[in-house]
Write a structure and sequence with these properties.
Largest sheet: none
Number of domains: 2
Radius of gyration: 20 Å
Oligomer: single chain
Structural class: mainly alpha
Amino acid sequence: MQRPLDPDTDELLLGAAAGDGAARQRLLARHRQRLHRMVELRLDRRLRSRVDPSDVVQEVLVEADGALAEYLVRRPIPFYPWLRQLAWDRLVALHRRHVAAQRRSVTREEQGAGGEADPSEALVDRLIDGHSSPSRQVLREELRVRVRAALDRLAARDREVLVLRHLEQLSTAETAAVLGASEGAVKLRHLRALNRLRAVLEPEFGEEQS
């Protein structure tokens, strides 16, 4: 017997708008994992010893549950980008509360640990994963340096498109909503960034295949 397909986000939104409590809860639970990935990626490194990403996600979902009725009336942006914006605002508030207001104590606690979350290293890992054999560690580290240098030469907006698409795994439409840009602009930036990185990665592909 064929298993029925799970309702997608749009169906759950319709159910929630009609007063279906189960649809409402499934809607929020559906995106928990995506939110967790985003919070882990974006959480300030100086807060990792005191802030649990799972707690942040739970607080965001509680906030979203309270604000859902207003969202359903207006639907200003797609659902997940709206949910993600709530998480982003909470991360900004946590940074202000624990870092900006208590900079000296946090700095003592995390001496030399660095600053705000930088997803670039995770992006480098994603881009080179599988493109260099673990047995060729020296070449892999050289490739890491080249890819990181190529990323640093990209415009900040182009790097952010790569992070949203490849690490947070947002769709083009979701990325456009997050950045306040058109889908065409996102596609152009994504393609341009990938072409520049491909010039760095392709020599490694050739070496691996020889």
